[in-house]
Amino acid sequence: MNFVERIWKRLQDWEERPVLGELHAGGPVTATGRELACRIQWTRQQLRRLGVQPGDRCALLAPNSIAWVAADLAILAEGAIAVPLYTRQTPAEIEQILADCQPRVLLVGEAAWADRAGEIGRQLPLLDLSAYRSNPEPEELEPPCPRLASEPVALIYTSGTSGPPKGVPLTTGGVDFILTHTRERLDRLMHGHDAEEKVFHYLPLCYAGSWILLLSCLCRNAVLWFSVSLDRLADEFRQAQPHYVLTVPIVLERFRRAIEQQILQRGRLVTGLYSAGAAAWKRRLQGEARWLDGPVSALARRLLFDRIRQQLGHQLRAMICGSAPLREETQLFFHMLGIPVLQVYGLTETTAICTMDIPGEAVPGWVGPAIAGIEMRLSEQGEILVRGPNIFPGYWNRPEETARVLRDGWLYTGDRGEQDSRGNWRILGRVKNLLVLSSGHNVSPEPLEESLLGEIPGAQQVLLVGHGRPFLAAVITGSVKSADVQAALDRVNATLPHYKQIRGFLIRPEPFTVESGLVTANGKLRRDRILAVLQDQIEQLYTSLRR
Q: Which of the two ends of the chain, N or C, has the fewest CB atoms closer than 10 A to its terminal CB?
């Protein structure tokens, strides 16, 4: 039984119970197993009417919703290949993807969304998902079309941090393999909890990690709650009262800053208790506890840390974090509050996952061991190589790109890493992001960027530059003061060898955004585009520093 068949069985078992929900300002909207099945059946009928055949690509452009899930499952059930699109991409980017994958139809959340697909989208047969009306006498849900393990079920496009997005086919067998291991980790996390699980989700479903979470929930005793407005994220989170949530580092950083800012506004007594409690907790963690640290930690936990945790959600067992490296300090911060942060590492090309923290055994700063059945090693250049049943068969219509990353059965991830004696992996940065100074020294920018970001009040993003130049400089976004930046540089530089020291900086008040095309949906900087946009300013900065 493959994962689609397991989902079908679960919908039948949960006919009268909610499986999905949307958190609207006016109140929640849910779908039972039967209601979701009705939507799936209606969508399948519309796809057939439009001539969709097994193996056809079906592009899906809609926000996270019950309708999105029904459409995705209908495409899978018809034996077609889902091509999920990101709603915040520009029409030009969406057109580029549509031209590459040549879909049979375009499914949209509502008719107006078709305009975001550009001229190519307007020429495709259109299925407006908002046209669905529930049938008082629904037809029985048809079984899904059979699929071979090697057959692609989805074509997910990379975020395009460097160059055009590439289509990554994910296979039935690869998804089945990954879901087996997500189930095992989630079973550990939820050990002793036999009631239904509540899961909160706000990240776009068009990305592999989000899609895997969705499929995991549809196969489990879980209700997945969708955020419908990022402006209400904190309120929706509290409303959902989840047991776990998939998140990204940038959101955890914002949560941490917001919590610390609230503490600072509550006066000296609370601020002092927080500082003393945090220092005592850290010393105890490092095995350097002083004689009063036990009582101080207990007091801070009872009067402060536990209350903060309750505000975030009294049922919260863990936050699962992926897509980019998470600062060790931030992971420790949430652990101090009693909220484990479990890291996951993977790429779209690895069906989203290679490593996962084991609940109760997470090591802050590391992303856990490779899951069983996956091999990982380092090349001579320190690049992480992966092989296993989760590896994609090759990029869509890109044989040269495929040959570059798939060699001798190994996937060359483009990530630099290291492994500890217990098998845990740490991600050090992207190989292509390595800065080679004119002195010949190599510098991975990501660790330094993370350190500096944590030292500058109000900083939103930090980007190091210096490739081919005699020294490093930094671009900082956000409402920051030059004096604070310089003080932070002095502190960070004091711990670094001369070639890693940051000699100058450029402040940009407006942060890089998805809308400007300078950040991907999951918060990764599009470095090449940023360097192109700021080329003149960076050149002026280096000219002034050489004087």
A: C
Question: Which residues, including other chains, have CB under 8 Å from residue 492's CB and lie 6 or more apart?
Answer: 448, 451, 452, 455, 502
Question: How far, in Å, CA of 541 to CA of 534, rounded?
Answer: 10
Is residue 272 within 8 Å of 303, Cβ to Cβ?
no
Q: Which residues pair with 462 in a beta bridge?
A: 476
Angle at 104 (CA atoms; ends 100, 105), nearest 5 degrees? 105
Tokens of 503: 């000699």
DSSP per-residue letters across 77-101 = HTT-EEEEE-TTS-HHHHHHHHHHH
Which SS3 state, helix, strand or coil, does residue 384 take? strand
Are 412 and 535 contained in the same domain?
A: no
Same domain, 114 and 187: yes
pLDDT of residue 521: 67
| The total number of structural domains that make up the chain | 3
- The 10s digit of each residue's pLDDT in 20-50 is 999 998 899 999 999 999 999 999 999 999 9
* pLDDT tens-digit series, residues 421-445: 999 999 988 888 888 887 778 888 8
Q: Report the residue count for the chain.
A: 547
Q: Do 322 and 391 belong to one domain?
A: yes
Question: Is-contact 224 20, C-beta < 8 A?
Answer: yes
* DSSP-H helix ranges across 337-475: 399-405, 445-455
Beta-strand relationship, 459-465 and 472-478: antiparallel
Helix (H) or strand (E) holding 231: none
Alpha carbon distances (Å) from 519 to 166, 399, 536: 17, 27, 20
d(CA 427, CA 326): 10
Q: If you search the block for the tokens 């006919």, which residue do you land on?
A: 15
Q: Is the pTM of this model over 0.85?
A: yes
Looking at the DSSP bridge assignments, the partners of residue 246 are 320
Query: Whole domain around residue 146: which residue ranges?
Result: 3-243
179 and 129 together in one domain: yes
**Cα(96)–Cα(388) distance, rounded to whole angstroms?**
31
Do 384 and 265 fall within a single domain? yes
431, 457, 475: which is the final residue of a domain? 431
Domain of residue 369, CATH code: 3.40.50.12780
- Check residue 301 and report its DSSP letter: I
Please check whether residues 58 and 206 belong to one and the same domain: yes
Instruction: Specify whether 224 is located in the same domain as 270.
Output: no
Domain end marker among 243, 273, 295: 243
Contact 25, 42 (CB under 8 A): no
Same domain, 411 and 279: yes
Q: Angle CA(389)–CA(4)–CA(84) in degrees, nearest 5?
A: 80
